[in-house]
Design brief:
It is built from four helices and 17 strands. By secondary structure, the protein is mainly beta. The protein has two domains: 6-137, no CATH class; 171-291. Strands 9, 10, 11, 12, 13, 14, 15, 16 and 17 form a nine-stranded antiparallel β-sheet that branches. The longest helix has 12 residues, at 6-17. 38% of the residues are buried.
């Protein structure tokens, strides 16, 4: 297999840049001595591997690529002056060369002059690796094609990253049926909201251990709730597949706005003898845990 060339890197930039938000950042330039924000798309080569790092608002994505494999991670981004914290919500790639794992927290100190950013590790593990060499901000977003990349939604804001949760709780449970390759429909009951119907869309693989990003819609008599989740499927004893993973309500109709930005997760059970059925639903985390937080984390 050939080694990646500059043309390949140009294609990879497009996927991570996701056009307008990061292209605008890359076109600007920080003045020395002013912290500003690190938003942009950056490239770094180290140890025969190519790294791409995209920072946008409260989200980040990082990819490491060589001629043998591709690993990536994405999640939430918090900046405070010269310090930046990356919280991984999803990752993929060969375990032996993984960039990071879900729930990892990468703490760094950053500085940038013109189009070069330097990172300094404030935590162990991946932080020390990404701080190994300078990163160059890239601005070419006109190339086409796909190479190693995280999911398309990695840098897409959900719209609730900066909203303060109300402390409301939600619990929906029902019986679901797979009605298409990437679609599940379920009918059940939501506590405090009554009977409803919930659909799940996304690539759900029933295996020993799989993980994917899904979206869901819950319809009740009072309105509609939309959300997303990083859903893990575990193969468990007694012929069961267990669904589990963090999720968040990202949009609602007007009468249900108290549930906006609510954090929770999708959970359920599928039996091996009925692989097109699942009993479960969406449930929020305990109210006090949510109320203590000034704003929600990036969870999907």
């Amino acid at each position: 297999m050939r080694r990646p060339g500059f043309a390949d890197l140009r294609r990879l930039v497009v996927v991570l840049a996701l056009t307008s938000p990061l292209a605008a950042c890359a076109a600007g330039e920080d003045k020395p001595g002013q912290p500003g924000r690190p938003d942009g798309v950056y490239r770094m080569a180290s140890g025969g591997k190519v790294w791409m790092l995209a920072l946008s608002g409260r989200r980040f994505a990082v990819t490491r690529w060589d001629r043998r494999d591709c690993t990536w991670a994405y999640g939430g981004l918090t900046t405070k002056g010269e310090q930046v914290e990356l919280r991984v919500v999803d990752a993929a790639g060969p375990a032996a060369t993984a960039v990071a794992e879900p729930t990892d927290v990468i703490r760094l100190r950053w500085s940038r002059y013109r189009d070069v950013m330097e990172l300094h590790a404030l935590s162990a593990g991946t932080a020390a690796i990404v701080a190994g060499a300078p990163w160059r901000r890239v601005a070419d977003t006109r190339a086409s094609g796909r190479q190693c990349h995280p999911p398309a939604a990695a840098l897409t804001p959900t719209g609730v990253e900066n909203l303060r949760p109300t402390g409301a709780t939600l619990s929906f449970s029902g019986d679901f049926v797979r009605t298409g390759p990437t679609h599940w429909d379920g009918r059940g009951t939501a506590k405090d909201l009554g009977p409803g119907r919930m659909s799940i869309d996304g690539r759900v693989v029933l295996g020993h251990l799989t993980r994917s990003r899904v979206t869901f819609t819950l319809r009740v008599s009072r309105g509609i709730l939309h959300g997303c989740s990083i859903t893990t499927i575990w193969r468990r004893p007694r012929g069961r597949y267990v669904w589990d993973g963090p999720g968040q309500i990202t949009a609602t109709s007007s009468r249900l706005r108290r549930y906006l930005a609510l954090s929770g997760g999708i959970g359920g059970v599928t039996f091996t003898y009925a692989r097109d059925r699942m009993h479960g639903g969406f449930g929020s985390y305990p109210g006090p845990h949510v109320r203590r937080r000034s704003r929600p984390d990036v969870v999907c």
